[in-house]
# Entry
Amino acid sequence: MNKKRKILFVQEKFGNISEVFLYRLITGINVFDVEVLTENYINRNHFPFDINALTLWKDPVVPNFKKIIPFIRKKLKLKGSYSSKSKQIIEIINNSDADLICFQFGFLPVMMGSDFEKIRKKTCIIHHGTDVNKAVEDKLYYKRLLPIWEKTDKIIFSSYFLMKTAHDLGCSTVKSVVNYIGVPTLSLEKYLPRANMPFRFICVARMVPVKNHITLIKAFSQLIKETNRSIELVLVGSGELEAYISHTIDVLKINKDIRLTGALNSQDTLLEIAKSDCSILVSAPYVVPNVMRQEEALGLSLIEGGGMGLPMIGSKSGGIPEIVLDGITGYLVEPLDSLQLKEAMLKILLDPEKSKEMGKNAAQLVQKKFDLLKQNKKFENIFMDIIS
# Structure
């Protein structure tokens, strides 16, 4: 019997809420053995489902845990430059028996710089958004990213929007491929019915500028004034703008109509989505000239809401239109147009038959393009193609 090929996933920090997709990927791969090299592994409760099922890290990996999967932050409390850290990472990579090194995001390879070419194994990079969008404004980062793209064997993007952004920056079209993030099969059937409850809009997003909460809150405030229906807005997430968002809600005097849950783990987030009627994400590009650019690469919360049969409202920004098909799975609006957003919310609210139809279409779209098993299988094929 042939021995399984092995992938070593490398990521500087592993364990934040936004890393759910990596958890779903590495625990869903079957044709490869999987190991992980990370600097920091925090808060296991932020991962979905039963964390005890994450056995690929412990068996058969645990005998080599200190050698192959160190917590680099503890190992590399060294004085000196990044080159010392880079040297240690490359030594671990080259001493491993992995057939493929898969970097999650481009930040760590960029930090490694010219040392990246010292890796004596096949490599690929999975880009999820921030790392590519940063290169649009940050010219130093851009100059360092270009040679990394040239040296790596494959570049995987989470949306066509993101791949086009990279191509416009000079990324190889031959090496590029899009593979959407997968989500597990989700169903409303296991949850309590929503009868006789307020119509609930939900937005799951970090409270940072790119997520554009203020436009949503203003639109919702206008909606309240125009309808006698019982409605509410749930905001799931936390971040640097949390206090400002709360203040805006106070000023508009709609505290009783909006609930802020703070940051939730993945399973509790899914429960909140399941108890909702419409999923919203109206991200807007956020630019600090010559420093950074942020734009929504795809929109995982919309995919999860659509998978549960919720109609969606999204902005015409980044990769969101790859999920929200206007009039089919939901409505697309201009990112900063609160009036247009209010009108879309009103249509969802006042036309339940149309909303139900769009929810069904959304569920079908997610099953077709974002199903976890299908997307993980595509990842396996991409990885096998690189090794072969």
Notes: Residues 199-369 form a domain with the Rossmann fold fold (CATH 3.40.50.2000). The radius of gyration is 22 Å. The chain is about 40% helix and 20% strand.
